[in-house]
Amino acid sequence: MSGSPAGGDFLASMAQASQARCARARQLRSEAQLRDFIARLPAPLPLALADQGFDLIAELKLRSPAVGALRPAASEDVPARVLAYAEAGAAAVSVLTEPSRFDGSMLHLEKAARALSLHGVPAMRKDFLVDPYQVLEARAAGAGGVLLILRMLPRPTLEALLDEALAQGLFVLLETFDEADIALAQELLATRRERAPRDALLVGVNCRDLATLQVVPGRLEALAARLPTEVPRVAESGVGSAADAARVAAAGYDLALVGSALMSGGEPRQLAASMLEAARAAIGRRSRRGSARSSAPPVEPGARATS
């Protein structure tokens, strides 16, 4: 998620607003009613990653606190946009449901999930989730996954959200910003990775500074080596072009979450496809270099390697 000049205060205020939204939602539909509705739904769509080694989570985001309005909410054709993402090869579509700063809504998630189900592509709820009830809301709306912001919540709440998501069959993207967040992600994964389905747990790095709203150059590369290698790694923010996608793929990321660039451009299908093509080419080059290094004969002591 992107922040505001208040940094941590922004996350605190968003968490408070999310808690208030959750309380209002409970008044309209109890948790028991929500669970009863979910029990009649088909299983959520799983996240299926491609064999080519790199995937895209394309995002439906109408507004960003960093740049303002990206698309007019009143006229945006949600099904058409998410279908364009799916047709370009996106593995999942992230849908903002936060209303006050991102112009999102649960209706957007419902529309996106319904349209994407025809292509077998899951939708992911992206919001400032603070209560397991909101995970149930996502499931009821047809989502296949949710995003959790690790630095925003106390550990017991994070664990409750994560465990509810896994119990509902949802994939979970754990969003980190620094080494401390990654260490927490490692701890959360340690007791859940073995019992979670394949690709149900992901760890992402958001390279946006929550205090300034600016992308921090080099953060994705600097933190890549610290991420767990046994789960998919996601580059969040700072990926706006095919060259950026190739860069993060070369750094070791398995996916990129891309929102603003796809929302503000005129050809989201073409941009998404070009990002995938460039990133997968970079993965291929990285693999070939690694293979060449591993197959090269050892150099005798005192001898000079030739190029």
What does this structure look like?
This protein is an alpha/beta fold and 307 residues long. The protein has one domain (8-42, 50-212, 220-290): Aldolase class I (TIM Barrel). It has 12 helices and 10 strands. Strand 5 (123-126), helix 6 (132-140) and strand 6 (145-149) form a beta-alpha-beta unit.
Number of continuous helical runs: 12
Second CATH tier, the architecture: Alpha-Beta Barrel
Q: Helix- and strand-based class?
A: alpha/beta
CATH superfamily: Aldolase class I
CATH topology: TIM Barrel
Domain count: the total is 1
CATH class bucket: Alpha Beta
Put the structure in a nutshell.
The protein is α/β, with parallel strands linked by helices and 307 residues long. Helix content is 45%, strand content 14%.
